[in-house]
From TrEMBL:
Protein name (record): Tubulin nucleotide-binding domain-like protein
Occurrences of domain Misato Segment II tubulin-like (ranges): 2-116
Organism: Aureobasidium mustum
InterPro entries reported for this sequence: DML1/Misato, DML1/Misato_tubulin, Misato_II_tubulin-like, Tubulin/FtsZ_GTPase_sf
An individual GO BP term: mitochondrion organization
Residue ranges constituting the DML1/Misato tubulin domain according to the UniProt record: 120-298
Length: 515
């Protein structure tokens, strides 16, 4: 079945994950409806509830800190209520018991309406407190893993330093064997595992936790595809030491490492983003992640189907390039009609008529897309980045949702990619009629004059020289702030990663650029 197991680490990652699972639920079809192009068995697992009822729940492990789950509990409508802790205590102790309860978190109005089968109210950044406030799916109890050692937003023991995450994983793994306890039950349910997909914050302690988890997982699973989506908070000066460690440690173990900023430096006018709302910023990240991985969960009968392994082969291009960047543009599907036939290569790919010039052959369409999800090196110094020389693209996967191009254009692009003697970037293009679903739990951050129910997305995942430019900027700053014991191995490792993106490409003139 080519299953994919998703691991989520931390608040931002779980906001992204909640949007992801809500979108997957929207692809289900019922009764006489046409069969969904998405193969649900890839991301969902069949099972049985306590009363024998058949269930279908995400293949997911959700890690977060104490107090971070809101009203989400391991028990739910599918798997029954948990035993009363007061009753358990009284059974185990013959004497008097004194139960101290913390204040109960009140269920969101949105969840109350879902439970009652009513149409839920419109959400806003003010009404979303936790990622569970707008969750629309039921999880298996084993999917929920609360780490009691740290509390969300604690001032006394903040979960921020990269080494803190490493230490927490080591202590928990020594006590419980986390992979055996948490991951193995999901692995044993898979007939033909396609990949492990990990979503994590990369600029706090979750980066260290994820790196250790991935290292242990490699011992168990060998060469299984492992993709890591590293989330970095934009709009503020980042924790460069954490970012440097995540890039070096995680990318050396992952099959692909894709950093995604919460807040791009430049946003087109059609994006209305509240940068202080994780509900909003995770929505932008999810559209990029969900669209780029769409080909990996389509049915075998669908055109444009691919696998994680195929994409890795394309992007590495016989090299060792494991870090990629995402660019995208988004439109109201109605605006695409009439553009693909004869005008696709010249059309305006922006909502509200926003345009941004043309692009050269080396840009492989990344410059034609107006949302760059790669965290910017300008944020590392607090300065606005300068425009560097034209970015060289080594390889690129294009994922198009909606008719951005004609079938002939798609075919020409893919034929050129298979030319062994061709010059320029290796590009593969996958186009699907399946649009991104804007469900009621998803914020209306993309405006085109009217409220939209579906989005046409043109996204690219690329290995480019701009990856090396950013990592060199990270390395320069890390060299000045990281202790001497760690500095040499870390900085030399970052330089080694950069060289993979510069070999055979004249980079002497742009190695000092910070864009």
């Amino acid at each position: 079945m080519h299953e994919v197991i998703t691991l989520q680490f931390g608040q931002q990652a779980n906001h992204v994950g909640t949007h992801f699972w809500n979108a997957q639920e929207a692809y289900f079809t019922y009764g006489d409806e046409e069969e969904s192009p998405v193969d649900h068995d890839i991301h969902f697992r069949p099972g049985h509830s306590e009363d024998g009822t058949e269930t279908f729940t995400p293949r997911a492990l959700i890690y977060d800190l104490k107090g971070a789950f809101g009203t989400l509990r391991r028990d739910n409508a599918l798997y029954g209520a948990a035993d009363d802790p007061t009753a358990i205590a009284q059974q185990m102790w013959a004497g008097n018991t004194n139960v101290i309860r913390t204040e109960q978190i009140q269920q969101s109005v949105y969840q109350q309406h879902l439970d009652q089968g009513l149409e839920p109210p419109t959400l806003s950044p003010d009404t979303v407190r936790y990622w569970s406030d707008y969750n629309r799916v039921f999880y298996h109890p084993k999917s929920i893993v609360q780490l009691q050692e740290y509390e969300l937003n604690s001032a006394l023991m903040p979960f921020e330093k990269w080494a803190t995450g490493e230490d927490l994983f080591d202590s928990l793994d020594k006590e419980h064997d986390l992979l055996d306890r948490d991951l193995r039950p999901f692995l044993e349910e898979c007939d033909q595992l396609q990949a492990i997909q990990m979503i994590t914050s990369a600029d706090d302690a979750w980066g260290g936790f994820t790196a250790k988890y991935l290292e242990r997982m490699r011992d168990e699973l060998g060469k299984t595809s492992a993709w890591v989506w590293g989330l970095e908070e934009g709009g503020r000066k980042p924790r460069v030491a954490n970012v440097a460690q995540s890039i070096y440690q995680i990318s050396s173990q992952a099959s692909m490492y894709i950093p995604l900023t919460t807040l791009p430096d430049v946003l087109p006018p059609y994006v209305n983003l509240n940068g202080s709302s994780k509900w909003h910023t995770s929505a932008l990240q999810l559209v990029a992640m969900e669209s780029m991985t769409l080909p990996t969960r389509l049915r075998l009968s669908q055109q444009g189907r691919s696998s994680f392994a195929d994409i890795e082969t394309l992007l590495s291009n016989d090299g060792n390039r494991r870090i990629a960047q995402v660019n995208m543009s988004i439109k109201d599907p109605a605006e695409l009609e009439g553009e693909a036939d004869g005008h696709a290569s010249q059309h305006d790919s922006r909502m509200n008529g926003f345009t941004n010039g043309t692009h050269g052959h080396d840009d492989a369409e990344s410059k034609d897309l107006d949302i760059d999800m790669q965290p910017k090196t300008a944020n590392l110094t607090g300065e606005r980045g300068q425009q560097s020389r034209r970015t060289h693209v080594f390889s690129q996967l294009q994922s198009l949702r909606g008719k951005w191009k004609s079938s002939l254009e798609i075919e020409d692009t893919n034929l050129a990619s298979r030319d062994r003697f061709g010059h320029g970037p290796r590009i593969e293009s996958h186009q699907s009629s399946l649009l991104f679903p804007v469900v009621d739990s998803f914020p209306q951050v993309f405006a085109s004059g009217n409220t939209v129910q579906k989005l046409a997305v043109h996204a690219t995942l690329s290995t480019t020289t701009s990856v090396a430019q950013r990592i060199r900027a990270v390395e320069r700053i890390a060299r000045s702030i990281i202790g001497i014991d760690e500095r040499e191995a870390l900085c030399d490792g970052l330089v080694g990663i950069c060289e993979e993106y510069e070999d055979g490409w004249d980079s002497d003139d742009d190695s000092d650029d910070d864009s």
